[in-house]
Amino acid sequence: MKSSSLEYQPVNSEVGVYDCEIRLKFRLIEEKGVLRDREELLEMLLDAFTCGADDYLEPVQIHVEAKELPEVEASPQMRRQLIRLRNSSDLA
């Protein structure tokens, strides 16, 4: 006797293209030399922010927006990736 809850039921997860904007403003106590390399700075700031507020980080303003875009506005690379994702979910 099979239980229907144990049977595989494929999940139809719809994917889309989103335009996302994140604006963060926070104060941070940090060594002065760290702020020179822009890429390293961004990575360090995001790491610090994801760890949360503490004695060295004080959030001032947070604004997040995400809106779905028509697929034709995505780059050709992103459209190819969407096709791959959809094709792989069809096989499951």
Question: Can you walk me through this structure?
Answer:
The protein is α+β, with helices and mostly antiparallel strands and 92 residues long. It has two helices and two strands, in the order βαβα. It has a two-stranded antiparallel sheet. Mean pLDDT is 80; it is low at 1-11.
Tell me the quaternary state.
Answer: single chain
Global Rg: 21 Å
Largest sheet: 2 strands, antiparallel
What structural class should be given to the helix and strand makeup? Answer: alpha+beta
- What overall form do the CA principal axes indicate? elongated
The tally of helices reads 2
Describe the structure concisely for a colleague.
With 92 residues, this protein is α+β, with helices and mostly antiparallel strands. The chain is built from two helices and two strands. The chain is elongated and about 50 Å long.
